[in-house]
Amino acid sequence: MRGGRSVAAVTDADFDLAAGECLALVGESGCGKSVLASALLGLLPGNAETEGSALLDGTDLLAAGERTLARTVRGRRVGLVPQSPAAHLTPVRTVRAHLTETVRALTATPRGGRRAAAEAAAERAAFPAGHLDRYPHELSGGLAQRAATALALIGDAPLLLADEPTTGLDRELVDRTADELRRHADAGKALLLITHDLAAAERVADRVAVMYAGRIVEITPAARFFGGPGPRHPYARGLLDALPERAFTPVPGLPPELSDLPEGCAFAPRCARATEACAVRPDLVASTACHHPWGARDA
Ligand SMILES: Nc1ncnc2c1ncn2[C@@H]1O[C@H](COP(=O)(O)OP(=O)(O)OP(=O)(O)O)[C@@H](O)[C@H]1O
Ligand code: NI
Known about the structure:
By secondary structure, the protein is an alpha/beta fold. Helices cover 31% and strands 12% of the residues.
């Protein structure tokens, strides 16, 4: 950034995602979820720097050049449901034109079958056939969201990144969209579902990764996260307790500025379990980065 300052938007993200698996990535606004997804697609802003590797079937996405990314990765090997779908649609083309063009570019469907394939893609994402000839500015947020999901599913990519794919949808459509994305995983593909909607995550995820201030602080099977023992990291437990159908108690305080992170555990200032030990940053050990994780004896 200006003045030589830098922001650690994502740090030490270390996880794997198997074919056929859905990993939900959750955490408060600004914690780095979208930056992580953008990094995997080579879509970070020009001022961003990355280190490390992100392997997809042997290709290091962080090392790949723009040409490789554009020709063989984006859409083909890594699909994206972008967080702001309206901004990713071309203003002068209808939804039908977007879908048909994507079918042409990403599938072997012969010319005569493309219209039907475009309509089938819309149907998968619950985009109403009657609105296919609308232009992006004529779409509500929820319709733009469904158009983006329809577009992202067409390429049948081995890895699908869905960044808040259910924003602006009511519960029935959230469930329908989540189930459709889950079918993508069930067909043997990997799904990274970025979401604020823990109910959607519970519905379809195999594992849950919780991010706080740019770091993954817990990564755990969904059955454990939502079920009996619950998460081990106090922040992860706080997210669940904030749900209206649970304690409805928000996590107190606000996340830190990423440009001004504390030395030790970034969550300590908001954590009821924090002690002097938390002045040292905890490593991710046994799936949790915390000096005082919840365990069996707390339950
Ligand atoms: N180009 C940039 N320059 C400076 N800071 C940036 C840049 N891009 C991202 N950031 C920082 O990274 C943080 C993480 O942003 P990101 O969009 O990944 O959050 P998020 O978890 O996806 O949030 P939300 O849930 O609101 O979508 C931002 O709050 C911002 O501080
Ligand atoms: Ni985001």
